[in-house]
Amino acid sequence: MTTEIILRGRGVHPGCAEGEALVTRMPISGFGGIHPLSGTITERRHELVGQSFKDRVLVFPGAKGSSGWASNFQATRLAGAAPLAMIFCKMSTKIALGVVVMRVPAVTDLEADPLELIRSGDHVCVDGDRGIVVIRRQP
Amino acid sequence: MHLTDEEQRLLDGEGGPARRAAMQLLVRYGTVLGAERLVDTNNVAGGGVASLPNRRDVVADPMDMDATFALLSLDSDETFEIPPVKANTFKLIEGMDPRHWQIQGVSERTKAIVERSQSFCGKLGISKCNTCTPYQVGNVPVFGEHCAWMESSAVIYINSVLGARTNCEGAQSTGAASLVGKIPYWRLHTPEGRRATHHVRVEHRIDDMMDWGLLGYWLGETLDDAIPVLTGDLGPGELRKLKHFGAAAATSGGIEMYHLVGRTPEAPTLDAALGGRPAREELVFTDAQRREAYANLNSATEPTVDFIMLGCPHNSLEQVRLIVRLLEGRKVHADTALWIFTPGALRDVADRQGYTEILQKAGAMLMSDTCPALGRVKPEGARVAATDSCKQAHYLPATLGLQTHFGTVEDCVESAIAGRWVGRLR
Description:
The structure holds 2 protein chains of 2 kinds.
Chain A: E1 3-8, E2 10-13, E3 16-23, E4 28-29, E5 34-35, E6 40-41, E7 57-60, E8 63-64, H1 69-78, E9 85-88, H2 93-102, E10 106-108, H3 114-117, E11 123-127, E12 132-137
Parallel strand pairs in A: 3-7, 4-8, 7-9, 9-10
Antiparallel strand pairs in A: 1-12, 2-10, 3-11, 5-6, 11-12
Helix pairs in contact in A: 1-2
Chain B: H1 5-11, H2 17-33, E1 38-40, E2 44-46, H3 65-74, E3 89-91, H4 108-124, E4 148-149, H5 152-162, H6 171-180, E5 182-184, E6 198-206, H7 209-223, E7 228-234, H8 239-252, E8 259-260, H9 270-273, E9 281-285, H10 287-297, E10 307-310, H11 317-327, E11 337-341, H12 344-353, H13 355-361, E12 364-367, H14 372-375, E13 384-387, H15 390-400, E14 403-406, H16 409-418
């Protein structure tokens, strides 16, 4: 039977999207950390190096590194390689601007740690209007 | 978010469509941050238009400057004429060196985009300093000045060393700030947002450039985006050392501000830096952490070196002079390229000093306006790089696919002459 977990938080970009989660405990660098035309993580020592967040729900602690964060994530949108939605923990100017220019549903400030509860491969619905995340996992 | 009457009028379109789009962007952005209001700024350092890779690759016509600025610097899908900037605005790094673009492997198309962008910046009144270090060439913010800067290495420098106030902004927020002179009043603009959160006791003596860099690289990786206050065995930190230290800390993590007790302006004492609160955590930096950072930065497995870059962040004249002294009368190996980067304004001085010529005679190149990681410029066929910059050593494998050696400037110059890596951790 499918397990369902509902988490409430703050929606920071409107819209709803659902899909397969890609989860990392490591913050992501925009410039020099991703290849924006394919959505692939390129940072040499990142645990997701070589994996793409394109068409997946990206679940991560937050942004780090260069101030080119928003530009590189805006480029993923323009190149059709953006994630479906984003769930993150730590607010920063890099990620806030990134959310604005990426224009995908995004939720933060969740009542429980999404990095604990969501695993890569889980099916996740992100409701950016109401700030709700629904996690569905097959046994 | 609370808006003043003036801000509301701009949002209503009184200042024209471009300034309205700028206000819309700032309101969307400030709302996500949870900022209560905007703050006036007359000091912006921004990214310009579409001359860097990833930017020029995703717009329909990177030669259409108005549409490109609207999309990439304001995140607007509308098209309108971009008016002159309202705030004093400095252009950061560019896509090529106007003098050595051919050696850098820059295409005619990229050259045309860069030249068009530069002329557009001139029309808007954006100062074309074309460097990651505006504070080295005429934009030195004063204590307490509210700024809107991007370029993580410059953000951490002006917050920590100068006591100016900026968050790590991006292309769209600086584009908007340049047009309306506003930025969200959030975190590092506020007195409480600038207090140290973590205390780091430095138990390994920090003196030379490399050790400052390794300390910064370890700090960023360990603390993510915290605000550390450092005490302990710290040698004199002049501009070039703090420039390198901050750049490293802002690369491996997201540190935007630090305090050095008794040195930086908001840390007369440990207690003042912490704002009277206890540190959330206390950490220790010893030789073990230094060795770990060194190992993490060195990604090269081959001993040969075919490309050496010095000057990230852009070198000061003092740094250029040191390289001149190390290289004078010697010759860079025929199979190795040595590129040194400095702001254009400082290269003019280097020309006058005779440094440019000495470097050229030794087989090295003094370049300006760009850098390998951001402009994605490198010598043709280069595979193994070396650098004295933690930031560049971190980014070169990901942006240019180069395996990279990291060491001191002396290691790099000796390796350039030998044509193979001779550096080691001392």
